[in-house]
Amino acid sequence: MDSKSRSSTCIAPINIAVIKYWGKSDEEQIIPLNDSISITLDTDYMYTKTTATISPEFTEDSIVLNNEQGSGDGVRFQNCLSEIRKLAALSKHASTIEKSTWKVAIVSENNFPTKAGLASSASGYACLVYTLAQLFELESHKSELSALARIGSGSACRSLFGGFVRWFHDSQPCIARPIAEAEHWPELHCLVAVVSNSSKSVGSTEGMKRSVETSKLLEHRIKHVVRDRIEEMKMAILEKNFEKFAEITMRDSNQFHAICLDTYPPLFYMNSTSQAIIQLVHRYNQIRKSVKVAYTFDAGPNAVLFLEQAEMSRFASVFYSFFGSTPHDQFFRGKVPNVTDAMEDAASLVPDKALKGQVQYTIVCNVGQGPKTIDPTG
Amino acid sequence: MDSKSRSSTCIAPINIAVIKYWGKSDEEQIIPLNDSISITLDTDYMYTKTTATISPEFTEDSIVLNNEQGSGDGVRFQNCLSEIRKLAALSKHASTIEKSTWKVAIVSENNFPTKAGLASSASGYACLVYTLAQLFELESHKSELSALARIGSGSACRSLFGGFVRWFHDSQPCIARPIAEAEHWPELHCLVAVVSNSSKSVGSTEGMKRSVETSKLLEHRIKHVVRDRIEEMKMAILEKNFEKFAEITMRDSNQFHAICLDTYPPLFYMNSTSQAIIQLVHRYNQIRKSVKVAYTFDAGPNAVLFLEQAEMSRFASVFYSFFGSTPHDQFFRGKVPNVTDAMEDAASLVPDKALKGQVQYTIVCNVGQGPKTIDPTG
């Protein structure tokens, strides 16, 4: 490669919305109809890794996604690239202005199964934008980068920040900003349950469009429910009030799926395993006489559970007794919890044999940081 | 039995709401928060049969339900009895006034499995009230009887009428009245799919109470959605506009279940089989390039499908190819449709092997008449 080419490798986290984004006011610019709040998960186990190279020798933009050659002319990818070049062209630095005209080669991969239904486009576009920003020396333009990631995939704008993040639907530009850093609530942990046999369903871009067009309840949610919830959720996070945080999280997940069901034809993202997980969480909380665990589901059947560190071993043991069909160090990945025989809780929470194997595996992690540059050889 | 005793045997139909009732403004009087519209199904296959006997010799009220002795002191049963006695006591006929003080013996049974989740309390209380009305010579008090049945079980007030029935939430008294007779739309047929392995869930009395208390969307549904739908549905019925009727029916069923999901903790009445039926109906309509079939689900996983007679054989054949695991004359009961090999439609609607057996059986019937007296020996 010629001496003028530059390369950078970065990783970016996934984020999980606890107040859901569902519905756009502008399809092309990806402006959401309501604010949302998300939690960034640590990159110890799940992340997108992107290597970007720019060179005056390249004749076209190219992209390799998860080892598959893409043409580089996807609309969203090109929109993203074109906007970041515009930003670079406005730079005070001659070198950045020069580089803004070079073509790029992108190699990007997720270290978690894309098909598992985890939000790979959020970490993917956040990583793309962040990596290109390193090459164009635009790292300091945090807000603009969030807006650029948004054009690639709405929720990607939240993955540019660590910790607890709010995406504003009416800010100029439309961007996300942190509510609190990851270190604010270190006790908060996350258990991602990857559900087996998830079938294909309507993609979220098409799904939310259909909801906006047909649901008679969505507008009410946006205008009269989410606004208060955003403020309550922000307070719950700032106060580290787990019970309040958990209840709002569960209610908002359920309402999002209610909107999907009120869509015509209806959208089903949760399946019978998702239902079983919801019911287990409510029964567990009932037995614990306090809200100890919260669930949330995006546009797919996988559950994301939040709980504090002190509850992890106890809950993980019960969860494993219901769903585990592999040795516990295979069933749990990431920060593998200590698992006991869960007899005490299982006495009143009788596992249904039919549920064994319905959760393929789980990933246990912390709240984490935003994107970062890594050593490409590492 | 002494010569003064009187006995009457009647049957009453079940009814299926196409605009759903969910939520009360008065728990004791069972006043609904919104109007609903239902269709009364014929009693050729499904009905409640009740024999009531009154006698001055009886020392207490008694009831036998589906061959199980009840104590006769259930609150709703006693409320119903007490109100009908009040009505009888106001009669101009000395004989009715006298009989209003006699105790009653009730024997009631459903000829369809109660556990199948079909609305047995609606036909049950409609039949109880109608049968007692024969004995007390109150048959002509149609409105009062509808109100009396309502006190037993809300939707029972609709089963006192045949055809297409509207229950008014703000009439005085709170009663149902017909929109159109059964003969108005003889082409309209109904296929009830009894889903296998339906698990226990929260009862509808408790469920709707929880929705009223916790759902952030229910009030909007009641105030801003149902009102228009009631008028649209009434017009669709009067015009026999199947497509319009079908779309409103499906949208309202979905919205009712969306409210259940927005309830906290959420209520799940549909299961994966229900979802599969919904998806099949939408795909079938898509292929037929017109809305030929509608689904609706009450507080349970069983599907009630509406379609016109001309479509029955074609749809039944496809439905059977997906769900049938017994010979077709066992799978279909009631007005057994002609079943072909469904190859034409099945080419683009590939049955999923896993669905076989998930529907236990189906009942095919017409729109039918209200309660009637029958020969008890028949």
From TrEMBL, chains A, B:
Disulfide bond listed as a keyword: no
Domain (Diphosphomevalonate decarboxylase-like N-terminal) ranges: 12-171
Role this protein plays: Catalyzes the ATP dependent decarboxylation of (R)-5-diphosphomevalonate to form isopentenyl diphosphate (IPP). Functions in the mevalonate (MVA) pathway leading to isopentenyl diphosphate (IPP), a key precursor for the biosynthesis of isoprenoids and sterol synthesis.
GO annotation, cellular component aspect: cytosol
Gene3D superfamilies: 3.30.230.10, GHMP kinase, C-terminal domain
Record-level GO BP terms: cholesterol biosynthetic process; isopentenyl diphosphate biosynthetic process, mevalonate pathway
Family: Belongs to the diphosphomevalonate decarboxylase family.
Taxonomy, superkingdom: Eukaryota
Name of the protein in question: Diphosphomevalonate decarboxylase
Record keyword Lipid biosynthesis present: yes
Keywords: ATP-binding, Cholesterol biosynthesis, Cholesterol metabolism, Lipid biosynthesis, Lipid metabolism, Lyase, Nucleotide-binding, Steroid biosynthesis, Steroid metabolism, Sterol biosynthesis, Sterol metabolism
Catalyzed chemical reaction(s): (R)-5-diphosphomevalonate + ATP = isopentenyl diphosphate + ADP + phosphate + CO2
Coiled coil: none
Domain Mvd1 C-terminal: 190-373
InterPro entries attached to this UniProt entry: GHMP_kinase_C_sf, Mev_decarb, Mev_diP_decarb, MVD-like_N, Mvd1_C, Ribosomal_Su5_D2-typ_SF, Ribsml_uS5_D2-typ_fold_subgr
Pfam entry (one): MVD-like_N
Organism expressing this protein natively: Daphnia galeata
An example molecular function term from Gene Ontology annotations: ATP binding
Matches recorded under NCBIfam families: mevDPdecarb (TIGR01240)
Pathway assigned in UniProt: Steroid biosynthesis; cholesterol biosynthesis
Enzyme Commission code: 4.1.1.33
